[in-house]
Design brief:
Low-confidence stretches: none
CATH topology of the largest domain: Endonuclease Iii, domain 2
Strand content: under 5%
Helix content: 55-70%
Structural class: mainly alpha
Shape: elongated
Largest sheet: none
Number of domains: 2
Mean pLDDT: 93
CATH superfamily of the largest domain: Helix-hairpin-Helix base-excision DNA repair enzymes (C-terminal)
């Protein structure tokens, strides 16, 4: 957790969440979530102190293969740049993505959009000349194409 930043704060929150799970369930184990509906499992996780929508979605998609889209800065930025959504926060983007990405595509979409954000559609200087989405991208059409 150190590489993600705020390790001391996160460590305390993780420990507190684990103790809360043990208090509620009698043991530190999340396997029971496999029997939950995805929205109910997400609700359970975000009820834990320090667990937000992104963390809950990551646990559910990667541990249980639930069709819930984790939205980090890359997903939020690209989804707005491309024009898939017009949202102000990652949480709002996550809600909007539930409506537009088919459940069977969420996992691959999530991995691919993060990779694209890291390598091509970078935060400060997107490499539009290397992008294969320019024909569909609002940012390119409104900022790069008009300028040329």
């Amino acid at each position: 957790i150190r590489s993600g930043g705020l390790a001391n704060i996160k460590a305390k929150k993780i420990k507190k969440s684990l103790m809360e799970i043990k208090k509620r369930e009698g043991k530190i184990d999340l396997e029971f979530l496999a029997d939950y509906k995805p929205d109910d499992a997400e609700e359970y996780l975000v009820s834990l102190d320090g667990v937000g929508p992104k963390t809950a979605a990551c646990v559910l998609i990667f541990s249980f293969n639930f069709p819930i889209m984790p939205v980090d800065t890359h997903v939020h930025r690209l989804s707005n740049r491309i024009g898939l959504v017009t949202t102000k926060t990652p949480e709002k983007t996550q809600e909007a993505m539930k409506l537009i990405i088919p459940e069977e595509n969420i996992y691959s979409f999530h991995l691919n959009i993060i990779e694209h954000g890291r390598k091509v559609c970078k935060a400060s200087r997107p490499l539009c000349s290397e992008c294969f989405l320019t024909d569909f991208c609002d940012y390119f059409q409104e900022n790069v194409k008009k300028a040329s």
